[in-house]
# Entry
Amino acid sequence: MAPLRPRPGILEIEPYVGGKAEVEGMANVVKLSANEAALGPSPKAIAALRAAVPVVHRYPDGGARALRQAIGARFDLDPGRIVCGSGSDELIQLLMRAYAGPGDEVLYSAHGFLMYRLSALAIGATPVAAPERDLRTDVDAMLSRVTSRTRALFVANPNNPTGSYLTREELARLHAGLPNDVLLVIDAAYAEYIGCADYTTGQELVERAGNVVMTRTFSKLFGLAALRLGWLYGPPDVIDVLHRVRGPFNVSALAQTAGIAALEDREHQEQERANNDCWRPWLAEQLAALGLRVHPSVANFVLVGFDADGGSARAASAWLERHGILARPMAAYGLPHCLRISVGREAENQAVIARLREFVA
Ligand SMILES: Cc1ncc(COP(=O)(O)O)c(C=O)c1O
# Structure
């Protein structure tokens, strides 16, 4: 009998490795490896979760109606054009499955979020990476890679792990250069942290075009990464397609309940944003003062460059880990000489700088 074999291409996928969370033999670590909310979840979300536990024998609302209404009210969007997912990762995978297949090309930028490549491979499509300029998405390079086989273009704005973003004008130019039958996915996972006047989540493009969607998440500023909750805003046709391909209960009741409570807790959101506004520039300054190359970031992390051969970045990561601090090595993103450090609480930020100072010395 022939052995079981997965579809061609599946075994080319390198399983996604998330930011490390543990160090053997250490009870308390400083985890700055996954761009999670520094201050943790909203106390109101925790209370809502507790209250929801006694009814977990009931299936959730498959349409996440109350949550979609809350998102719509908060961001001034039509709840009928929102789909929720088990993290924005799931929405990326659903879009991929619905709009691309074997032989199709899926485009993203060279140091773009890893899930674009991995989920394209998972459905048998060909991932195509356009080169970046100074670790920024290059609109012209992206457009020059569009072929008759391109089905979707993914752009994280701002991008993880580089922290750079496309301005409103650049994003509009990227969209204007795309054929109507190519889906533009704007992944705005870090949108809530950003205060730049020329930044856009892409919401207005979704409103005026038939081929643009915006994905968002509760895993970052809203502090609910473990619950897996993301959402997408798109044209009615795309929403209809996603409702057909998603699982009937793809978002748990606990995630829906906590999401609504987290949205309501404006004070907690402001605290998280203020922590980031204070400590990201501080981290960048301190790292630069140590002689390290810090790439400008508008999100809740900074990308730090060490010597070109990658040896110093690996050694720095190991040194930090030995002292119970977890940063994210970047070899999987094609940046072996870099570490990505999430913004933490004050003591965590002080700790990572103190240890890197020792390392550099
Ligand atoms: C750019 C980007 N998009 C999407 C995600 C996935 O987020 P979620 O937790 O909603 O699946 C991440 C997570 O790090 C990210 O950095």
Notes: The chain has a mean pLDDT of 96. The radius of gyration is 20 Å. The first helix runs from residue 43 to 52. The pocket of pyridoxal-5'-phosphate is lined by residues 35, 87-89, 113, 156, 160, 187, 189, 217, 219, 225, 230 (CB under 6 Å).
